[in-house]
């Protein structure tokens, strides 16, 4: 219990620091949404100070000292009220995040879990059968695929599978004439559109899980408890999964916690290439348009999910390996 409470206290301290940075960083960026709007209006002539003040009031640009704005921001965080989006005015930040988050969870979340499970199992098999084709084939393939950047793989799939072969659509999350609902037809259409972006994330991330699990597994195979289990006549599958893989999984579990926490941030480059309406695409729009409320809400959501995922991984560490509690 002391171990969990200590980790929880560290979580709260880190969360406060993250919220403070989330408040300060957007305000350190040059320019503002009001400056962008005034720049567009100034093309037709000088803009009066009263017009600028009206634009700031309409956008809800915060006023007063930094400390006053900081207290207001903490109040909005506690009550989960992030105001109106500057980019998509007059829609609220909560509604914009609510529209984008399901697409990201469906695409990036499911693919991340699938890549971790499949990659870890392949890594276990490769290490247990090291020196054979079952080891060399996935190891070489994983190293080759891991070297490809996300956006490069996405562009290759768009060109060959989208334009040349015409197998899959190249952009969007569903057809232009489709109406979002929970019908079987819409689900099939959205899954059809998600094939290429999902394949991009799976192909580029699978190699890292394979190599990480294989290297960690090889280190645990030589431990005394694995040798003792083999000497007792246990089946190879039991020794590999219940003895060697359980301890070898810990380093991969840390990476999985980071990846799972970052799922809500979407895959920015992949979503940009495929024009996928996820959180990454929304974050790009917020940054390019200096949309402070939307940026802060997205950054805060990503930060909280990463911290919570790491806290859960720390607790699982204590369960899987009691030595870490000391």
TrEMBL record:
Location(s), subcellular: Cell membrane; Membrane
Listed Gene3D superfamilies: MetI-like
Organism, scientific name: Actinacidiphila reveromycinica
Keyword Manganese: no
Coiled-coil features, chain-numbered ranges: none
InterPro entries (UniProt xref): MetI-like (IPR000515), MetI-like_sf (IPR035906)
Protein name: Putative peptide ABC transporter permease
GO (cellular component) term, any one: plasma membrane
Transmembrane feature ranges: 103-128, 140-165, 191-211, 249-274, 294-320
């Amino acid at each position: 219990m002391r171990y969990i409470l200590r980790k929880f206290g560290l979580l709260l301290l880190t969360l406060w620091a993250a919220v403070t940075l989330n408040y300060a960083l957007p305000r350190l960026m040059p320019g503002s949404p009001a400056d962008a709007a005034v720049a567009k209006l100034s093309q037709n002539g000088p803009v009066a100070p009263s017009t600028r003040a009206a634009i700031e009031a309409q956008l809800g640009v915060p006023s007063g000292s930094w400390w006053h704005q900081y207290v207001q921001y903490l109040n909005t965080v506690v009550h989960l009220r992030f105001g109106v989006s500057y980019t998509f005015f007059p829609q609220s930040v909560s509604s914009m995040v609510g529209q984008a988050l399901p697409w990201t969870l469906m695409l990036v979340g499911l693919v991340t879990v699938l890549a971790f499970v499949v990659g870890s199992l392949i890594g276990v098999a490769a290490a247990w059968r090291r020196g054979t084709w079952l080891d060399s084939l996935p190891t070489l393939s994983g190293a080759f695929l891991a070297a490809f950047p996300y956006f490069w793989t996405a562009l290759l799939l768009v060109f060959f599978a989208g334009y040349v072969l015409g197998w899959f659509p190249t952009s969007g999350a569903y057809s232009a004439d489709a109406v979002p609902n929970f019908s079987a037809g819409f689900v099939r259409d959205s899954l059809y559109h998600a094939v290429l972006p999902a394949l991009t994330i799976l192909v580029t991330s699978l190699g890292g899980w394979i190599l990480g699990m294989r290297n960690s597994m090889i280190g645990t195979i030589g431990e005394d408890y694995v040798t003792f289990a083999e000497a007792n006549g246990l089946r190879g599958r039991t020794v590999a999964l219940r003895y060697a893989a359980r301890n070898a999984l810990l380093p991969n579990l840390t990476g999985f916690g980071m990846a799972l926490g970052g799922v809500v941030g979407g895959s920015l480059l992949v979503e940009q290439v495929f024009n996928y309406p996820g959180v990454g695409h929304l974050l790009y729009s917020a940054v390019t348009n200096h949309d402070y409320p939307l940026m802060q809400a997205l950054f805060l959501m990503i930060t909280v999910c990463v911290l919570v995922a790491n806290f859960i991984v720390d607790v699982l560490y204590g369960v899987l390996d009691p030595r870490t509690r000391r």
